[in-house]
Design goal:
406 residues, Porin, mainly beta
Length: 406
Amino acid sequence: MRAVFRNTVTILLLAVCAAGVDAAEWKIDPTVAFRAGYNDNVRLTIDDEVSSAEVRLSPSAVFSVVTPTSGVSGNLRFDFRRFEDDSDLDDNNVRFITSSYHRMERSELGLDLDFIKDTTLDSQLENTGLAFGRVTRYTVNVGPNWTYKLDERTDARFGYTYSDVQYDNSEETRFVDFHINSGEASLQRVLNERTLASITLSHSQSNNDNDVKSKNTNLQGGGSYRFSETLSASLFVGVRHTKADYSQSSLIPIFAGDIIIGFIPLNEDVSRSDWGSTYSGGLTKDFLRGQTSLSASRAISNDINGIPIEVDRLRWNNLYRFSETLSAELNLSFYQSETGNDARSSLNREYYQIEPRFNWDFEQFWRISGSYRYRKQTFDNTSDDATQNAAYLTLTYQWPRIAISR
């Protein structure tokens, strides 16, 4: 993992150096936030619930380097979390996400690089709606891409992404390191000033340390439409084919007459495949004092040990500004995750999240926020639910932008 991270940083530095050949504009927006609060089920578990007060210090920076033909942008964030009742929960997380590009006459080369150290209750829960415990997770993503302009209205795009995921495992969890190779090809056309249409073919292959191999192919098409300056919508639908190969262990009984005198272990290679539908859509409406947006999607995720899981997501986000300095938000999320025809019923779950928040910009560069978060996870194979209540107060300072042109 460290070697991969060093390689990604080296590539990024080369991209920054390339951007610096011509006249460049550098921008940095530093921020520091301090959060304090209480969580009544830190691990989001049914049994052995751990509740604790916690504090988090989060310095971060959004940056960009832009020239007439190329650029690099991204963000760097650290999260130092400390818990009052259980120091074993303490963690130091980092998120380093970058995107670079180089424009040519009719095409553009791009490179996305990510390094994320967090817990499985952060990004993995966000991707899949599944929680199996709270374990440190390391993720590296490397994604080169190429876009070619066929004419003034039509673009063809090709991309490849390599993802490597590793866990700081413990005996109580069943996380397995895995990696994913994925690629996609898409065709996008501007039909008119309000309508954009596209079609995308994608394929991914994953493999984990337990020799679970899966392949997923997806063809999806659709478009977006702007009804007015304040109302826009998008809808994409498609079909996918998924295949998973793994070994399954069983015990064959040995009989002496009618009496079982022993067992013979048997490893059997299993291959499962199925077809399904995919979709993604959204609706966004801007108001004079706020905004509301609704999104829904269905896709295959390989973010649990390389095993393909079909995830339906529904989100509703709302923002209302009472004044220039005071605003409120309400974010609702629903996930339904299942393994299709796989027999692992413990992966079939539903996840809910409700999070109201208020923000007060009481001074220039200063903001104070208060939030409450309710999480719930239900299971198909048990009647028990895992619930979590958490309340936080956050103080944020946004430094004035640092900009340099040369």
